[in-house]
Design goal:
Blueprint (H helix, E strand, L loop, with lengths): L1 E3 L8 E5 L6 E6 L3 E7 L8 E6 L2 E8 L16 E8 L10 E5 L2 E7 L13
Length: 124
């Protein structure tokens, strides 16, 4: 598990990885969004699934070998099922999350919402 902080005033972003094959994941933010990019080369869009339950976004998928019957002399590529879970901070709009899959990269865009700061009201 890794903890990644996005903003000083927001609690840490909790990131859990499964075992076996795991895509490389980059997490960054812009002024308006949090962005997760997962490199999933060799995996079709149909073999990816993105779910949100409570405050947890989960990316699941499977990388399958196309040559199961081959006798390899050397095999460095990994395969298998994976699951990546991300605990979302409070300052995001979970209802407006978008995902785009292009050239082996899944880009998940999570819009940030402005956190209202407490304001003191003068009593007259």
């Amino acid at each position: 598990m890794r903890l990644v902080g996005f903003l000083p005033e927001v609690e840490l972003f909790d990131f859990k990885r499964g075992n076996g094959y795991n895509p490389d994941v980059d997490i960054f933010e812009t002024d308006m969004d949090l962005v997760i990019e997962a490199e999933v080369p060799g995996i079709s869009k149909e073999n990816l699934k993105l779910n949100i339950e409570d405050d947890v976004l989960t990316l699941e998928g499977e990388k399958k070998s196309e040559n199961k019957d081959e006798e390899y002399l050397c095999k460095e590529s990994k395969e298998g099922r994976f699951s990546e879970s991300f605990s979302l901070p409070e300052n995001v709009d979970k209802d407006k999350i978008k995902a785009k899959f292009e050239n082996g990269v899944l880009r998940i865009t999570i819009p940030k919402v402005k956190v209202l700061k407490q304001k003191e009201v003068t009593i007259n």
